[in-house]
Design brief:
Strand content of chain A: 15-25%
Distance between the termini of chain A: 67 Å
Radius of gyration of chain A: 24 Å
Largest sheet of chain A: 10 strands, antiparallel
Number of helices of chain A: 14
Shape of chain A: globular
Oligomer: homodimer
Number of strands of chain A: 23
Structural class of chain A: alpha+beta
Largest interface: A-B, 66 and 66 residues
Helix content of chain A: 25-40%
């Protein structure tokens, strides 16, 4: 029987000193605010909804049929077990932070089923023990067996931190089978969907057993030689096209690419100079400087759910899968621990308040899988890109992935090093920052600029406060001193501080994209602090079609108060015009239809669109 | 045994009077020029190349194994037989027009194999008699059985017109099996890939047997009720999402959509008031006014090879499959026969000189499958969109489709009606226009504006000359009279005419797209007559990256002579600039990098790109 761990209760707790260490998430309590409210909605809405859907979509029945408790046919995709594991992980982090009594019947029953279904040799997979019994480990490109196991391990780790180890015992039995089958001396083979790598490293941290990390490393280093062949979708799709340490461009299936990079970073954290750093830096630049949407969304192509060429970033066909943005948060967090640079937290903030936040409805019970930056009037391809959030998907990877992120979001806010504490993201709450010091953060951020941090006793170490790259004109005031300019990066307050006031101006700013981003040439995006805004059909004057709206070449945005229904500040853009007459699809230049004045158009935070009547939306607004 | 037909030798010979009738293609002889040269390259390059590849790709072996002449495994996609049929059709049209002695050994052997392989009940399919024997007609969504049969029928029709009916006997035996299986009283079912509809109508025209057209009609009318279920890719993909007569928007798989519409138009031609016309008109507008690339390319999405939403027309991810442009030519030709409006010929011209022409290399032996309007510097997704034409594809539908089009291109140039003859497309050659009159066309069109048409004897009927919508300032001079302005549509010359001189000014014109086409906002395309031009990396000043090039807001283009290597006129655009410094991927508006003057950039006809060193290309040129 595994025992409760003494490592930090967080999703990633490096075993060796790194640039930054996370805070055990029990040291962080959220107190309302955007993240705190979202975590509450996650607990009250998303997690119970996931539990319901695991039942109705057949995921639990798939296990029951293995133990004679159901005669329903297998339902869902072959990786459906992972939806259960992610939901269990989400509840596990809730259990680490507090009471989950009302969810325990579900957890107990799920663990009982898993125990009962697990084969004597440790194998556990409702698809390959069910309708495809006898075919275990025969379809590595598509089978997702180790992907599922990775999520089982992560759920087990969360529950071990909560003091419950029965799930860990199950996971360890299966992991041992994988050691025997795919460990050194076994099959030189890998799974078509990376995920197990980061899970195995975490398992080694939790258990202190280096074999798990070595297995992760083995899997990383076997990858890139068309080890599993071309499968159904080709080597790039499966991230088996170039050795991990030699990769320089993000390509192929975005979620696979980003989980793989998170795993490589985990190995690099625990084995300094593991040899991946050059690749990690190059890939980070490829992702964030060439292939990322302004919202932090990743994946430009529906076909293959993949990254595109550099600067290929169409707004309307942005795939921007929810899971890719979550995977990128995981990766950036590990890079932040490895390196400490503020840019990694900048990208966590970007993704969290845009590409990730947009995926969930106000009540937490409906989800986008793909998060485009534009939806056209007359959109009819609902099967390809729904115009409203759906309450579940056949491939339901995203909703429980959101659930596990939000239940552990406390872990991604503050870091520490030997001589300092770093505040990475700002949200109201209390933070036990070590040395017996508790910080209280009071702020309306990201809606208001002021962040008040007070310490119950004078700090024992330097405290560092991240100034986002977007926060031009930021200031910091320490212990009541006059505000001083604060450049992007980190601004320090010395040991002995009792209060810090940050001003991170969340002014509306219109942005342009790099000129090579053809998809949004001649347009502007409106950002307010870390939050991107959009135009939505529901806010347009009657009779105006969104595609016709043109904002001024040098636009301005005016604060227009809070929208009661959406609960967020909205912005008005004066001086808008609309094309009133239209020529043919193509025609000689010069006969462009004139645009008529329509006055002011309203912009709302991108992440709140599609909470009213369905309709067109766009983040990038034409200026001509 | 079938006998040689007495209907017109053309790919579509309506059985009833329509607005326009085609000319038997034996009445048209090309004499050089762009189309004549291309037809020669097709005969000398493409057709022999297809024959070679049918051998090396296994298509012929797939048949040989059925008759014990090969033990090779089945190779190629399950619809590989259709590549053979399209090649046979191409040779058939060559045989209608002249001598094909050197190709007859291939044809004889292929027909012998087909005869030997055909089952007693008429079934013939190397996949479902081969590796999937016993599964005939069990996978209608994906099986392509009737698609293959459609192409067999079209090959048989071409050869029947050439006086050879053994292939027609084979086709008829299989068609009778389909009558028994899927005809009235049989299975209410359809194929997942439309194509057989237009083939069956043509078979009915050739044989005079209305049952074939009635079967086509039955198949059309069964479609749209999710008759074959969702298959692997959904009802829209298989064109089974809405009844044909009720459809109003082009959607789903573009080639399937367009072949289906060609078939419905064929039925409408032979059964006036068949009930499809309202749908055909709406779909025509949907395709040509909302969903078509300037090049005549169709299909905005790689995923599902499908149409996108209206105005969703990204240049870089244009799928624009060669077969879709060919299918649209087929459809527009039938609409032209049905209706007579010049716009259908305008679209035939657009597609032929752009989206179709670009698919083939100068030597006719390499092909694009997808024909995007932009290829980026640093493109790495060769598996998804190759940057050069390939000499074959696993799914090799396009090359032999080109071959059959070019071998029958004579059929698409001139039409007639009871009281007039219509010149639709202009290319050098002789045209027996009826009444014992032969017209000789002399022109350098589309490179030069002047088209000389002389008749060997005075015309007996009105002759009508299409003035393309793009030809602003066109004039016509009849029998040496002063040139008179000619508006788009048709300009008439009365009976008794012996010479007509058209001037269709092929001046360079910069075009804009409709403001809703987000993919090309802030850019211009350069068109010269019917031919679109592009910038290609090979022509740029050293050190300039194509994505940096900016043309003037009000650009001009200067004739720059003929490029010796490419054999086509090129154009110079003075006053170009290039972005010399670059900001981050996203940033505040106003810090756009200035552009430095680089002088003149050269544009070449789009259809000739990728015949030199591989590199970036773009049709739509940024003006800022």
């Amino acid at each position: 029987m595994a025992s409760a761990p003494d490592t930090l209760a967080v999703p990633a707790a490096p075993a060796r000193p790194a640039a930054r260490r996370p805070l055990d998430l029990r040291r962080v309590r959220l107190d309302g605010g955007l993240l705190g409210d979202w975590q509450r909605v996650n607990r009250e809405g998303t997690i119970p909804h996931c539990i319901e859907r695991l039942e109705t979509s057949g995921v639990l029945d798939n296990l029951r049929r293995l133990v004679g408790e159901s005669d329903a046919p297998f339902r869902g995709p072959l990786f459906a077990d992972s939806d259960l594991y992610k939901t269990l992980e989400a509840i596990g982090w809730e259990a680490v932070r507090g009471d989950v009594a009302e969810l325990l019947p579900f957890v107990d029953d799920a663990v009982r089923l898993l125990e009962a279904a697990q084969e004597d040799d440790g194998y556990l997979d409702s698809y390959y023990q069910g309708p495809h019994a006898g075919e275990r480990f025969t379809d590595l490109p598509q089978g997702h067996e180790m992907y599922k196991l990775g999520h089982l391990v992560q759920a087990a780790v969360a529950w071990a931190h909560a003091g419950r180890t029965d799930l860990l015992d199950i996971a360890l039995r299966y992991v041992e089978l994988v050691h025997k089958t795919f460990g050194a001396g076994g099959r030189d083979d890998i799974d078509g969907h990376p995920e197990i790598e980061t899970a195995l490293v975490e398992l080694s941290r939790l258990t202190g057993d280096p074999r798990h990390r070595e297995l992760a490393r083995r899997m990383l280093d076997l990858r890139g030689y068309r080890t599993i062949g071309e499968g159904q979708f080709g080597g790039a799709y499966y991230q088996d096209y170039t050795p991990v340490a030699e990769a320089r461009e993000a390509t192929g299936h975005a979620v696979r690419q980003l989980y793989l990079l998170a795993g490589a970073t985990d190995v690099e954290l625990d084995e300094p100079d593991a040899g991946y750093r050059t690749a990690l830096d190059a890939l980070w630049a490829s992702v964030h400087e060439h292939k990322m949407y302004a919202t932090g969304g990743l994946g430009s192509r529906h076909r293959g759910e993949s990254f595109g060429d550099p600067y290929e970033l169409p707004a309307d066909r942005a795939y921007s899968e929810t899971c890719a943005a979550i995977a990128n948060l995981h990766w950036n967090w590990r890079m932040l621990l490895l390196d400490g640079d503020a840019r990694y937290a900048d990208e966590i903030e970007r993704g969290l308040y845009n590409a990730i936040a947009v995926s969930t409805s106000l009540d937490g019970r409906a989800y986008f899988y793909s998060n485009p930056l534009q939806l056209r009037t007359g959109h009819t391809h609902e099967e390809d890109a729904p115009s409203t959030r759906l309450d579940w998907y056949f491939c339901a990877c995203c909703p429980p992935n959101l659930a596990r992120l939000l239940s552990s979001i406390n872990a991604y806010l503050v870091t520490e090093s030997d001589d300092a504490v770093q505040f990475q993201l700002y949200t109201p709450g209390t933070f036990e920052v070590g040395d017996g010091v508790t910080a209280t953060v009071r702020t309306g951020f990201p809606w208001t600029s002021r962040v008040d941090v007070t310490f119950d006793v004078p700090t024992a170490r330097t405290t560092q406060f991240r100034v986002p790259a977007w926060a031009a004109g930021a200031t910091v005031a320490v212990d009541g001193a006059a505000p001083a300019p604060a450049a992007p990066g980190f601004v320090d307050a010395p040991a002995g501080t009792t209060s810090v006031v940050l001003d991170l101006p969340v002014e509306p700013v219109f942005e342009r994209a790099h000129p090579w981003v053809d998809g949004v040439r001649g347009t502007r995006a409106l950002r307010r602090g870390p939050v991107y805004y959009c135009l939505e059909e529901a806010d347009l004057p009657p009779g105006v079609r969104l595609e016709d709206v043109v904002i001024p070449l040098r636009p301005t945005a005016v604060e227009a108060g809070s929208d009661a229904e959406l609960g967020v500040p909205v912005l008005d853009i004066p001086g808008a015009r609309a094309h009133a007459a239209h020529a043919d699809l193509y025609g000689p230049a010069g006969d462009d239809a004139p645009a008529a004045a329509i006055g002011t158009v309203r912009a709302i935070p991108y992440f709140r669109w599609a909470n009213r009547a369905p309709g067109a939306m766009r983040v990038w607004m034409p200026t001509s």
